Protein backbone atom coordinates (compact mmCIF):
# COMPACT_ATOMS: atom_id res chain seq x y z
CA UNK A 1 0.00 0.00 0.00
CA UNK A 2 1.13 3.50 -0.77
CA UNK A 3 -0.45 6.71 0.46
CA UNK A 4 0.43 10.10 -0.95
CA UNK A 5 -0.74 13.35 0.57
CA UNK A 6 -0.14 16.24 -1.80
CA UNK A 7 -0.28 19.74 -0.39
CA UNK A 8 -1.25 22.13 -3.16
CA UNK A 9 -2.18 25.01 -0.86
CA UNK A 10 0.68 27.15 -2.16
CA UNK A 11 0.80 25.63 -5.65
CA UNK A 12 0.58 27.64 -8.87
CA UNK A 13 1.03 25.85 -12.20
CA UNK A 14 3.15 28.64 -13.69
CA UNK A 15 5.37 28.97 -10.62
CA UNK A 16 5.64 25.38 -9.45
CA UNK A 17 9.21 24.71 -10.65
CA UNK A 18 11.23 27.71 -9.49
CA UNK A 19 8.74 30.51 -8.94
CA UNK A 20 8.01 29.97 -5.27
CA UNK A 21 4.59 28.27 -5.49
CA UNK A 22 5.33 24.60 -5.04
CA UNK A 23 3.42 21.51 -4.17
CA UNK A 24 4.71 19.25 -1.43
CA UNK A 25 4.06 15.55 -1.24
CA UNK A 26 4.47 13.14 1.64
CA UNK A 27 4.37 9.51 0.61
CA UNK A 28 3.92 6.60 3.01
CA UNK A 29 5.27 3.52 1.28
CA UNK A 30 4.39 0.28 3.03
CA UNK A 31 7.47 -1.88 3.51
CA UNK A 32 6.10 -4.44 6.01
CA UNK A 33 2.79 -5.34 7.68
CA UNK A 34 2.90 -2.41 10.08
CA UNK A 35 5.76 -0.36 8.70
CA UNK A 36 5.68 2.58 6.34
CA UNK A 37 8.64 4.55 5.00
CA UNK A 38 8.02 8.32 4.90
CA UNK A 39 9.28 10.10 1.79
CA UNK A 40 8.99 13.79 0.96
CA UNK A 41 9.00 15.39 -2.48
CA UNK A 42 8.15 18.69 -4.13
CA UNK A 43 7.37 20.15 -7.54
CA UNK A 44 10.30 22.55 -7.11
CA UNK A 45 13.49 21.85 -9.02
CA UNK A 46 15.75 22.64 -6.07
CA UNK A 47 17.49 20.04 -3.89
CA UNK A 48 14.89 18.80 -1.43
CA UNK A 49 15.60 16.18 1.19
CA UNK A 50 13.33 13.14 0.75
CA UNK A 51 13.87 12.13 4.37
CA UNK A 52 13.13 15.31 6.34
CA UNK A 53 11.30 17.36 3.70
CA UNK A 54 13.45 20.49 3.60
CA UNK A 55 15.23 22.40 0.91
CA UNK A 56 19.00 22.35 1.29
CA UNK A 57 22.28 23.44 -0.30
CA UNK A 58 24.99 20.85 -0.92
CA UNK A 59 24.07 18.39 1.83
CA UNK A 60 20.95 18.37 3.97
CA UNK A 61 21.91 19.25 7.54
CA UNK A 62 19.37 16.79 8.99
CA UNK A 63 21.91 13.98 8.68
CA UNK A 64 19.26 11.34 8.02
CA UNK A 65 20.54 8.35 6.08
CA UNK A 66 17.15 6.87 5.31
CA UNK A 67 13.45 7.58 5.60
CA UNK A 68 11.57 7.72 8.86
CA UNK A 69 9.67 4.49 9.50
CA UNK A 70 6.22 4.83 11.07
CA UNK A 71 3.42 2.41 11.96
CA UNK A 72 0.00 2.22 10.34
CA UNK A 73 -1.61 4.05 13.27
CA UNK A 74 0.55 7.08 12.48
CA UNK A 75 -0.34 6.86 8.79
CA UNK A 76 -4.06 6.63 9.69
CA UNK A 77 -3.72 9.77 11.81
CA UNK A 78 -2.05 11.61 8.92
CA UNK A 79 -4.83 10.55 6.54
CA UNK A 80 -7.50 11.67 9.03
CA UNK A 81 -5.73 15.00 9.45
CA UNK A 82 -5.46 15.44 5.67
CA UNK A 83 -9.19 14.62 5.22
CA UNK A 84 -10.06 17.24 7.84
CA UNK A 85 -7.96 19.84 6.04
CA UNK A 86 -9.61 18.83 2.76
CA UNK A 87 -13.04 19.22 4.38
CA UNK A 88 -12.03 22.74 5.47
CA UNK A 89 -11.45 23.56 1.82
CA UNK A 90 -7.67 23.35 1.73
CA UNK A 91 -6.05 22.41 -1.55
CA UNK A 92 -5.01 18.90 -0.75
CA UNK A 93 -4.95 15.63 -2.59
CA UNK A 94 -4.99 12.21 -0.98
CA UNK A 95 -3.99 9.29 -3.18
CA UNK A 96 -4.24 5.78 -1.79
CA UNK A 97 -2.95 2.91 -3.92
CA UNK A 98 -3.48 -0.63 -2.66
ZN1 LIG B 1 17.14 16.22 5.39
Largest sheet: 5 strands, antiparallel
**What order do the SSEs take from the amino end to the carboxyl end, as H and E?**
EEEEHE
How big a fraction of the residues is strand? Answer: 25-35%
Q: Using DSSP, what is the number of strands?
A: 5
Radius of gyration using CA atoms only: 14 Å
Number of domains: 1
The helix/strand class is alpha+beta
Shape: flat
Low-pLDDT ranges: none
Report the mean per-residue pLDDT as an integer: 97
Overall helicity: 10-25%
What separation lies between the terminal Cα atoms?
4 Å
Q: What small molecules does this complex bind?
A: zinc ion
Widest sheet: strand ordering: 4-3-2-1-5
Short description:
With 98 residues, the chain is of the alpha+beta class. Helices cover 16% and strands 33% of the residues. It is built from 1 helix and 5 strands, in the order E-E-E-E-H-E.
Amino acid sequence: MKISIIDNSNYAADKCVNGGNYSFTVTYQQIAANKFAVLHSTSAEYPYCPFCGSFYRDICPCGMKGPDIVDSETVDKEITCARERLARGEELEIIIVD
